[in-house]
Amino acid sequence: MYFTLAAIIITILLVLKKDAWFDVKHGVLWDQFSILLFRYAGVILILALGATLADDAVVVVPAGQRGVVYDILRKGVRPEPLGEGFNFIVPFIQQITLMDVRVQKDTYDATAQSKDLQTVHAKVSLNFRPMEQETPAIYKNFGLGYSDKVISPAVQEAIKQVSAKFTAEEL
Q: With 90 as the cut, is the pLDDT of residue 64 above it?
């Protein structure tokens, strides 16, 4: 985007300086044109490259989320998450993954056996939220699908353990 804008600006500057490189009798004065082109292009392309790097260095973490930073040089996840708002990273070396730290709700259909070996069907709803400071460890160990990998099996196991203590009539 910045390089396209730079090309447009270079074209406009060359058109504005047309009298420096175009003569009605002789046409285009290529030596003057090339000097102006390289002068303008060099400065503006350096500015466009700087703007691109600056744009990639700023990360905005939305409210209710934390940014987990993966550092390519360190080959790992940084232990502290990025907080809400503007944050600075090293472009091309650090990558950001956003994790939701608001209360989330999961609903599970569980099947278990009661104490008298009757099949029990239950629908369980669970509200949870990851601790903000633990998001890097959660991401590193389980990834973004931690709910399906950790919470769902734990709920299923808890339902089985609890229902095995009671008869079907008591449940």
A: yes
| pTM of model > 0.90 | no
In the sheet with 76-77, reading across from the earlier edge strand, the strands are 76-77, 65-71, 94-100
What digits encode the pLDDT tens for the residues 28-52?
Answer: 778 877 887 787 778 887 887 888 8
Q: Note whether 134 and 141 are within 8 A (CB).
A: no
CA distances from 26 to 21, 30, 47 (A): 10, 10, 34
Contact assessment for residue 59 and residue 89, using Cβ atoms and an 8 Å cutoff: yes
How does pLDDT run across 65-103, given as a tens digit for each residue?
999 999 998 888 999 999 999 999 988 899 999 999 999
Is residue 44 within 8 Å of 9, Cβ to Cβ?
yes
Beta-carbon count within 10 A of 158 CB: 14
27, containing H or E segment: strand 27-28
Mean pLDDT for the stretch of residues 7-20: 75
Contact between 115 and 165 under an 8 Å Cβ cutoff? The reply is: yes
76-77 and 65-71 beta bridge pairing: antiparallel
DSSP 55-124: HHHEEEEPTTEEEEEEETTTTEE-SS-B-SEEEE--TTTEEEEEEE-S-EEEEEEEEEE-TTS-EEEEEE
How far apart CA 13 and CA 15 sit, in angstroms, is 5
